[in-house]
């Protein structure tokens, strides 16, 4: 199976996690990182999830799943140890057109969760199409080492330059693209940003742009 990779904007979006064990906890953490509004339905939860509920970071309903829990949710994750229940939640979601991730059955899922390396706005997501989560996790660890942490600041810097370039060359998208591609592979620029020398980086860009 080949999956379509996308990055979702979930800020303040109501998401449901059914089952608050170790796996449910990992899904909750991923959702909180992007500012989603998380409800957990589960008779018992991990101590960490109980703490998050206490602090008001998530809503915890300490009971079994009911179909009405789906109302108003944009994404659902089901991670109980009960195979039949997980399959039931998947069916309920698909019947009403809600995207659902089933922790123990990739085939019943309408989306999978990848392993992710994050450096600020830069994210690299790894999926094996559900074939080997262990390999996805291993490749993530390797990518963590390859992708310099400075990419976080570099991506932000390049992001700030884009609107400036749009203003400078409003009519010529091709020219902007050529410039942005060149800046993205400018190692000297990356190194300046890595050393925190943003002013010198801007000077390098300005000097270089004046030649265009
Ligand atoms: C289909 C998918 C559905 C979903 O989205 O959850 C799924 C399904 C299953 N995982 C299982 C097992 C394990 N999962 C992990 C770890 C992760 N699993 C994740 C995603 C996914 N797991 C989706 C596909 C991703 C892809 O496309 O590759 C990660 C990447 C993201 C996350 O969950 O946050 C996260 C790493 C996060 C990180 O490190 O950053 C480990 C590793 C470990 O624990 O060390 C193991 C043990 C080793 C192994 O089995 O490989 C089992 C068998 C359970 C059993 O045997 O009972 C199933 C069910 C089945 O395959 O039937
Ligand atoms: N996708 C993944 O990455 C992985 C998936 N799995 C699978 O994920 C599932 C969950 O694994 P764990 O978190 O380790 O299990 P767990 O047993 O620690 O947690 C399951 C949770 O589901 C809750 N639950 C049980 N019945 C419920 C119901 N009717 N309604 C709502 N909540 C209910 C329990 O109270 C418990 O908190 C298992 O099927 C396991 O095989 C396991 C490892 C990795």
| Lateral strand order in the biggest sheet | 3-2-1-4-5
- Uncertain segments are none
Report helical residue fraction: 40-55%
Q: Describe the main β-sheet briefly.
A: 5 strands, parallel
Structural class: alpha/beta
> Which fold name corresponds to the CATH topology of the largest domain?
Rossmann fold
CATH class of the largest domain: Alpha Beta
Which radius of gyration do the C-alpha atoms yield? 22 Å
Please state the average pLDDT score: 96
Keywords:
212 residues; alpha/beta; Rossmann fold; Double Stranded RNA Binding Domain; 3 domains; 5-stranded parallel beta sheet; two-stranded antiparallel ribbon; 8 helices; 7 strands; 47% helix; elongated; binds ligand SHN; binds 1,4-dihydronicotinamide adenine dinucleotide; Sirohaem_synthase_N; EC 1.3.1.76; NAD; oxidoreductase
